[in-house]
């Protein structure tokens, strides 16, 4: 075999695509412009660096669509998910990871793979030769973004994405805060105490909302307009939608009991989740923000327990670009105008670490099959990967970034009870069907690869 696969972007999608293709005997050149050229969000040159949350969200593979994606990726021997489990931190029912060792492990696995070469030169154009996967995510460089826009004949769609602050644990006042997962969720005591909680009474909450609304915010450049992805709204944008929005969102007080004042029901609760294995850093859950740095420290120190908080990282905001995939890509994730080029990850219009890695997994296997001459069967529609597969039925006119959810799945053939009461049975039926379809697909792809050898 002489054909190489070039992959641009060493985030979740690019790293997973490289791993999947290389394990199928394909020589891979992984292009990652860092550390030679950095971004405002990245801190290192490591592959698989997490720049926002450290959570892969729910790990429930029977009742949650993202947990189902975890299961499918693990069954496909995915690098990203196996490394996440290796570097797992207590987080209730979620899969949170120690971000620095996670990225170090991803980097070590890829750099030591005999079929993978890492290149740190920036790619600024869409090549005509060889097979390529572009997985540059929300921080696609200006030059490459312009090249993509020129090729597609349209400006890339865009929205704004925000980063939550991280606090030094030893600066948190534990006489006011306490450790507890909501509803004591988790099988071990460590899991049941995975979150740090800061309570607010009504007056404190109202004052916090007033300060949040009045705080100085990041101003965008002239002509730089876009919407927000609803799954990652800045807290001030949520507050602008109504004073109670935060209290029914990331600051909801349900399922928690303050051991300092067990008889007092908090009006709102701010949760923090451990950000590293040592437990020295905590990120403020759901507190993405576009407040200016000075305003952030003032407003966030209004939270009981965080009056003297020291911040390892303050929040930020960046432009996130994505393609209208149903219009521009074919069923194999190839650019219709240039079939030698595939796209994967967030730039295709999925949202989240897990979904991005899942698209990298699919793209890597598709590219490897094309190069090796294997007859890769279509990704099964009933699997979580198939439901996410961005060219498989999305509406071009209304296409926007989306996390995986059961609303994307083909309806069940059997009739089950509707409403909230029947939800557990329905979700279990979705996941059972998906696991069977995905297992069959993995078997068929393995047989196709053997036949091509």
What is the percent of helical residues?
25-40%
Shape: globular
By DSSP, the count of extended strands is 18
Tell me the count of domains. 2
Largest sheet: 6 strands, mixed
Could you tell me the radius of gyration in angstroms?
A: 22 Å
Strand content: 15-25%
Runs with pLDDT <50, length 5+? 221-225
Number of distinct helices: 13
The separation of the N and C termini measures 11 Å
Describe this entry's structure for a reader.
The protein folds into 2 domains: 4-156 and 323-452, FAD/NAD(P)-binding domain; 162-317, Beta Barrel (Elongation Factor Tu (Ef-tu), domain 3). The model is unreliable at 221-225 (pLDDT under 50). The protein starts with a strand and ends with a helix. Helix 2 (65-75) runs parallel beside helix 11, helix 2 (65-75) packs parallel to helix 13 (423-452) and helix 3 crosses helix 4 (99-111). Strands 6-2-1-7-18-17 form a 6-stranded mixed sheet, with helices on one face. It has a 6-stranded antiparallel sheet with strand order 10-11-13-14-9-15. Strands 3-5-4 form a 3-stranded antiparallel sheet. It has helices at residues 12-22, 65-75, 79-86, 99-111, 142-152, 189-192, 202-214, 235-240, 293-300, 325-328, 353-372, 384-388, 423-452, and strands at residues 4-8, 27-31, 55-58, 88-89, 94-97, 116-119, 131-134, 157-163, 166-168, 178-179, 195-200, 227-228, 268-274, 281-284, 311-313, 316-322, 334-335, 338-343. It has 453 residues and is α/β, with parallel strands linked by helices. The radius of gyration is 22 Å and the shape is globular. Helices cover 32% and strands 17% of the residues.
């Amino acid at each position: 075999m002489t054909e190489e696969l070039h992959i641009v972007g060493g985030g979740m999608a690019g790293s997973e695509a490289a791993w999947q293709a290389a394990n199928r005997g394909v020589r891979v050149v992984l292009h990652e412009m860092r550390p030679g050229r950095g971004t405002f969000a990245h801190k290192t040159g490591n592959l698989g660096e997490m720049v926002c949350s450290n959570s892969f969200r729910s790990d429930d593979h029977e009742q949650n669509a993202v947990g189902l994606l975890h299961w499918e990726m693990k069954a496909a021997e995915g690098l990203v998910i196996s490394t996440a489990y290796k570097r797992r931190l207590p987080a209730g029912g979620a899969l949170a990871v120690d971000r620095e060792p996670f990225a170090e492990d991803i980097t070590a696995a890829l750099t030591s793979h005999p079929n993978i070469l890492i290149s740190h030169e920036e790619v600024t154009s869409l090549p005509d030769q060889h097979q390529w996967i572009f997985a540059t995510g929300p921080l696609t460089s200006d030059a490459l973004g312009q090249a993509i826009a020129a090729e597609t004949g349209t400006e890339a769609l865009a929205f704004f994405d925000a980063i939550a602050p991280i606090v030094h644990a030893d600066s948190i006042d534990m006489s006011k805060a306490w450790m507890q997962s909501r509803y004591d969720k988790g099988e071990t005591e460590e899991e049941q105490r995975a979150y740090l909680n800061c309570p607010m009474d009504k007056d404190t909450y109202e004052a916090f909302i007033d300060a949040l609304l009045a705080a100085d915010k990041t101003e965008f450049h002239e002509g730089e307009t876009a919407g927000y992805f609803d799954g990652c709204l800045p807290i001030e944008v949520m507050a602008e939608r109504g004073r109670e929005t935060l209290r029914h969102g990331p600051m909801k007080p349900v399922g928690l009991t303050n051991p300092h004042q067990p008889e007092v029901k908090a009006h709102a609760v701010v949760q923090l989740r451990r950000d590293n294995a040592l437990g020295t850093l905590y990120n403020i859950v759901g507190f993405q923000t576009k407040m200016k740095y000075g305003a952030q420290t003032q407003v966030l120190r209004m939270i009981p327990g965080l009056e003297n908080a020291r911040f390892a990282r303050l929040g930020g905001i960046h432009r996130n670009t994505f393609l209208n995939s149903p219009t521009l890509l074919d069923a194999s994730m190839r650019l219709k105008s240039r079939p030698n080029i595939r796209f994967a990850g967030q730039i295709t219009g999925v949202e989240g670490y897990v979904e991005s890695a899942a698209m990298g997994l699919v793209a890597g296997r598709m590219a490897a099959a094309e190069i090796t001459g294997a007859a890769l069967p279509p990704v099964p529609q009933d699997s979580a990967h198939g439901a996410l597969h961005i060219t498989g039925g999305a509406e071009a006119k209304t296409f926007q970034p989306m996390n995986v959810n059961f609303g994307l799945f083909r309806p069940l053939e059997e009739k089950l009870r509707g409403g909230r009461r029947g939800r557990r049975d329905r979700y279990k039926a979705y996941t059972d069907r998906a696991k069977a379809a995905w297992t069959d697909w993995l078997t068929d792809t393995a047989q196709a690869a053997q036949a091509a050898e």
